[in-house]
Write a structure and sequence with these properties.
By secondary structure, the chain is an alpha/beta fold. It has two domains: about 1-195, NAD(P)-binding Rossmann-like Domain (Rossmann fold, 3-Layer(aba) Sandwich); about 215-430, NAD(P)-binding Rossmann-like Domain (Rossmann fold, 3-Layer(aba) Sandwich). The chain has helices at about 10-20, 35-40, 50-60, 95-105, 125-135, 155-160, 170-185, 185-190, 200-230, 235-240, 265-275, 285-305, 335-345, 360-365, 375-380, 390-395, 400-405, 420-425; strands at about 1-5, 25-30, 65, 80, 115-120, 140-145, 165, 195, 315-320, 350-355, 370, 385, 410-415, 430. The strands form three sheets. The chain has a six-stranded parallel β-sheet, with helices on both faces. Uridine-5'-diphosphate-xylopyranose (UDX) binds next to helix 9.
Length: about 425
Amino acid sequence: MRLSVIGCGYLGAVHAAAMASIGHEVVGIDVDAGKIEALSKGEAPFFEPGLQEILSEGITSGRLSFTTDISAAEGAAVHFIGVGTPQQHGGYAADLTFVNAAFAALLPHLSEGDIVAGKSTVPVGTTAELAPRVAATGATLVWNPEFLREGWAVQDTIDPDRLVAGVPEGADGERAARILREVYHPAVAKGTPFIVTDYATAELVKVSANAFLATKISFINAMAEIAEVTGADVTQLADAIGHDVRIGRRFLGAGIGFGGGCLPKDIRAFAARAEELGRGESVNFLREVDAINMRRRDRAVELVTEALDGRVHGKKIAVLGAAFKPHSDDVRDSPALDVAVRLKGLGAEIVVTDPQAIDNARRVHPQLTYVADRDEALRDADAVLLVTEWDEYRREMDPEHVSALTHGRVIVDGRNGLDAAAWRAAGWTYYGMGRP
Ligand code: UDX
């Protein structure tokens, strides 16, 4: 099939390349000329495992192209909208500027029978508002939310857990759902659940999934707070409750909390939308989820201060990690960087290292010192702070080896990823989050 993808960021670029990899002819469109130039040469503009390969393959095969010219969307059977919906400046609601701009640009190029499939995370009600304008061109609007995780985006796009399509009632909706099944043919063929529903449900599926995940993380972080005043160990607690299949162990990783381009802004936008709908109280807990999450960053700063006997000023702290999570170079709302910046504000000498995210981090926080080499970052440090659980730090860091590099022997594990006993055995003072 011929497809267009409007918006070539973390979502759109992966979607375009993944759709080409399953046999479609795809044009990716974005207003950012620099991004389009890189993508056209087959260069991934950000780090995402597996993206480089499918991108090069798509460009070489001729099935995948990129342009800034929106008229290139003409002739595609399905047009995916994958532009960003960031948090508004000075507010919690989603900023729909890019969604509105994408629709305004695309509408003149639509033909009778085209499908427009929105993938961006939007406030419930957005699709119903946009639908008449799309219908006036003879095309049909569907909402097809995206659940990809950064770091697993290629796999999640080609082989998702489930597919969701919010379609209009009647024959147009049925036809649109049929066409989407063709688009996602490999996943559909292997029996991946494909849920066809109304617009509002499709929009809510996305935000409620993220709200649930954020709540799960904040739940365990709240338990970490209680563990801290009782001497309990939150990781053992998580293991124990995680064995209950109704609860499950995943997303019960206590630490410095969630960040990134999705969970934080999505829960805030959801709360703001619920307020507009007169149902603010239904999701009031999301404000608490957000507050617990932000408190963990304060706690990490507190632990480092404690580890340095209350004197952070002038101390060298090696900060392991800058990305909001491993396998990504994304630093949007990164708890890792936030903690590093706060410590810098207290007068510490901060040296940050990360296998992928240094360039992005430096752009946002040029005041911090960055080194690519982990051991270089550790050299002469008074304290070590692990904030992104890359394997390089979590699995592949030998306490004896680190002892030979650092000045101090205190380590704060902001992700509870290290073997505390091994570090203590090597003479280190180990601080976890919600662990004795
Ligand atoms: C999330 C959703 O998982 C995905 O379905 C949606 O499409 C986009 O938002 P992503 O932002 O890539 O994906 O990251 P995710 O893996 O969900 O992690 C989010 C944050 O939570 C990270 O900062 C991570 O470090 C943190 N986290 C995750 C925890 O603190 N503890 C956990 O147990 C799990």
